[in-house]
């Protein structure tokens, strides 16, 4: 294998000069650069990223933990994160947790052992991990998206889910609906609890009753929405409208209604949450609460890079404001 010493020998310079040319961290004359680059090309030399990272104590890589899901919300955020990493000269190492706390811990240890420069966490696992877990890997900046698995403070970017849940439900109420059900996510995370709380707040403010069975705790997946809507259809009095805690479950609601011959919004109106890419291509296009996924990815990288440069600064929390996207899945009573 060709080494830096081989390049230096052929170019007639020192190994430190070769290093300066490769890394661009010291001035080297143009004539010397040409000799070094010619030697590199002739010997087909590839610099060792590992060796460089050991020397500069930086790998130019960012690790990301994300829950594997059929919900494209995650993939859309990951795409934004990867694009912003690339623009800033970093590579992204992605690990799926598959909904397993054990796998989350193992993946996190793997990323930390690889000495990633920073870590992004966007996972739905709800078991809190002790901050002692990180003591073996000091000074690793961490930014969490929506929810943190640690009992210690860290930088967090989150959705204003209370406002979003209230916004979705109030929209249904303003369209004349009174019998409104909510298919919420698992109540083990604050995000899910806040969206449900927003639904309850809007119903309470409108002095509307929430009948037994109108609140269902599901799992943010297509199948969860399907099964939940089937339960609602078995109630003595089925709802006029449904607020699904995310678009994936809303798509499951579409399927459940299709299977029994009910039409949206003629028979039941539906509103989702997230505004994933497919939402506008459904029949009818889905009215939903928009989360700024591109902005979320950019802010996550910006915050992580700031933390790398300012490790002693106070933890930050950014709250993104969702907005209503009106399409055709909600009718008028």
TrEMBL record:
Pfam families: LacI, Peripla_BP_3. Keywords: DNA-binding, Repressor, Transcription, Transcription regulation. It comes from the Bacteria. The keyword Transcription applies. Residues 2-56 form the HTH lacI-type domain. PANTHER family: LACI-RELATED TRANSCRIPTIONAL REPRESSOR (PTHR30146), RIBOSE OPERON REPRESSOR (PTHR30146:SF145). This is Ribose operon repressor. It comes from Xenorhabdus griffiniae. The lineage of its organism: Bacteria, Pseudomonadati, Pseudomonadota, Gammaproteobacteria, Enterobacterales.
């Amino acid at each position: 294998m060709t080494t830096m010493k081989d390049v230096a020998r052929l170019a007639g310079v020192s190994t430190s000069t070769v290093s300066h040319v490769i890394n661009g961290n010291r001035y080297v004359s143009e004539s010397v650069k040409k000799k070094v680059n010619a030697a590199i090309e002739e010997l087909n030399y590839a610099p060792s990223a590992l060796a460089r990272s050991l020397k500069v104590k930086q790998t130019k890589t960012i690790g990301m933990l994300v829950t594997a899901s059929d919900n494209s919300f995650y993939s859309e955020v990951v795409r934004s994160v990867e694009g912003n990493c690339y623009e800033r000269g970093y590579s992204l190492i992605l690990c799926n947790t598959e909904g397993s706390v054990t796998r989350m811990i193992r993946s996190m240890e793997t990323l930390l052992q690889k000495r990633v420069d920073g870590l992004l966490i966007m996972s739905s696992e709800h078991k809190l991990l002790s901050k002692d877990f990180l003591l073996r890997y000091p000074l690793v900046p961490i930014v969490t998206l929506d929810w943190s698995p640690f009992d210690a403070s860290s930088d967090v970017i989150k959705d204003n889910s209370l406002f979003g849940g209230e916004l979705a439900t109030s929209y249904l109420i303003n369209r004349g609906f009174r019998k409104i059900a909510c298919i919420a996510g698992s109540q083990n995370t604050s995000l899910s609890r806040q969206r449900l709380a927003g639904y309850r707040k809007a119903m309470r403010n409108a002095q509307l009753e929430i009948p037994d069975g109108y609140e269902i705790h599901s799992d943010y997946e297509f199948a969860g929405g399907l099964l939940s809507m089937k339960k609602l259809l078995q109630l003595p009095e089925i709802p006029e409208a449904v607020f699904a805690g995310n678009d994936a479950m809303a798509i499951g609601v579409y399927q459940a209604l299709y299977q029994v011959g009910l039409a949206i919004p003629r028979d039941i109106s539906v509103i989702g949450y997230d505004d994933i890419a497919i939402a506008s291509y459904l029949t009818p296009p889905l009215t939903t609460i928009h989360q700024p996924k591109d902005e979320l990815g950019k802010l996550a990288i910006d915050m992580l890079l700031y933390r790398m440069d300012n490790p002693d600064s106070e933890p930050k929390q950014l709250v993104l404001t969702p907005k209503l996207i009106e399409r055709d899945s909600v009718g008028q009573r």
